[in-house]
Amino acid sequence: MVSTLPEREVSPASIAERTRLRVEEDESGWSMVATEARHGARLRRAFREYLEHHGHPASDFDAAEAVYGELVGNCARHAPGEIRIAFRWDDSTLVVTDALDRLRTWPFSPDDTRAESTHHAYALINAFTGRIHVTRDPAGGTRASVVLPVLRAAE
User: Residue 154 falls within a domain, yes or no?
Assistant: First the structure.
């Protein structure tokens, strides 16, 4: 499926033309790999549209979009560089992996001069999901995963 956005919105295809970005989506999940985390942040609306297309109407799409925005936005601010984002319907898990190993200390990084906004993001993510799990990724970098409050639509 390809997301269609109004012309004033940024489409995944228009970003991919200007950057090294790959977005894949089907009924089982959504994934994105980009050379810069900021490009993942710009796909927030496209991610929500994907969830709405495949998700059950009782899902909390507002919360899911907010969690995506906060988690990926923090990567863009604190771990700029390559990012991998994956969502899968089988367990409703969103996984964000940064290549710089900066998220491992998130949200309590001692060298983070913007700690207040980082703590705000962590509080929001925790409120909507109940838990954020941060680990070292075997391929390098840090992996943050959360279970989003969404359900797949009945097939």
Answer: no
Q: Count CA atoms within 13 Å of residue 121 on its CB side.
A: 22
Q: What is the CATH number of the domain that holds 87?
A: 3.30.565.10
End-to-end Cα distance, the chain: 16
CB 95 within 8 A of CB 30: no
Q: What is the pTM of this model?
A: 0.77
Residue 119: count of CB within 10 angstroms of its CB: 13
Domain that holds residue 38: 12-147
The count of domains in the chain is: 1
| One-character DSSP codes across 19-30 | SSEEEEEETTEE
Is 52 part of any domain?
Answer: yes
| Separation between Cα atoms, residue 94 and residue 72, nearest integer Å | 11
How far is C-alpha 32 from the geometric centre of its chain's CA atoms? Answer: 9
127-141 residue pLDDT tens: 788 778 888 888 878
In tens, the pLDDT along 72-101 reads: 888 887 777 889 999 999 999 999 998 876
Q: How many CA atoms lie within 13 A of 79 on its CB side?
A: 29
Cα torsion for 72, 128, 47, 140, to the nearest 10°?
40
